Amino acid sequence: MEEMTLCSPEHQEVFRRVWARVMGDQEGCPAAANPPEGMEGDLSCRKLAELAKAAQDAAQGAAPDPAVPQPEPSNPCTARLRRQILEALEGWQFYRYLARRARGGAGRILNAMAADQHQQARRLAAAYFLLTGVRYWPTDTLAVPAISSMWGALRRRHQAEEAAFHAFMSAAQDAGDPALPQLYQQLAQNCQEHCRQLRALLEQSGP
Q1: Are the CB atoms for 113 and 199 separated by under 8 Å?
Q2: Are 101 and 150 spatial neighbours (Cβ–Cβ below 8 Å)?
């Protein structure tokens, strides 16, 4: 059990200084620099020491605790990866729902394309984790895709795959990390294959 022995006047003075440092910049609090009367007497020497150490670390710019997640610094490369992960997962979601409405062989092809999109998202997420140490997998943000017709949906995905192809090729030229160009080139090839498959599905469907 933590000892609750009251501290010496010196320790209580440390507490007052810590309180002033923490509370002194709060507007509209004329008594912020002084703790409530008797409050320092309610704390143990250990707690006072912890408060003093925290204030000292803050003043000296001590390194953050590695156990506490830190905000990710702004970085165009990692921001682009986050966007690409989300887009890949949205494509996975779209193909899954589209496969449920397809018939026969078309459903199998669309399910395989959904698996491709999921793998694409996993590869991008792995690259993101290696760069940031953060796992980003935003499946909880995915919405049910609006699919009014099979032909319209296939056309939308063809456009999305073409856009992704050009985005990956552009990213490969400005990857910001030596390990990313090859990944982006491979993903761009996958997008080209998806475009070919989607065109074949449209040709087989017929008017």
Answers
A1: no
A2: yes
Q: What is the pLDDT of residues 99-118, one digit of tens each?
A: 999 988 999 999 999 999 99
In 3D space, the residue among 72, 47, 58 whose CA is nearest the CA of residue 25 turns out to be 58
User: In 3-state terms, what secondary structure has residue 149?
Assistant: coil
Backbone angles phi and psi of 4, in degrees to 5? -110, 20
Q: Give residue for tokens 């910001």.
A: 176
Check: CB of residue 141 under 8 Å from CB of residue 86: yes
Say if CB 82 and CB 136 are below 8 A apart. yes
Q: Look at the alpha carbons of 157, 158, 163, 167 in this order and tell me if their dihedral is positive or negative.
A: positive
Q: pLDDT digits over 18-35, tens only? A: 556 544 544 444 444 454
pTM for this one?
0.65
Angle between helix 45-60 and helix 9-23 axes, rounded to 10 deg:
50
- Cβ–Cβ < 8 Å for 40, 46: no
Q: CA 13, 15, 18 angle in degrees (round to 5)? A: 115
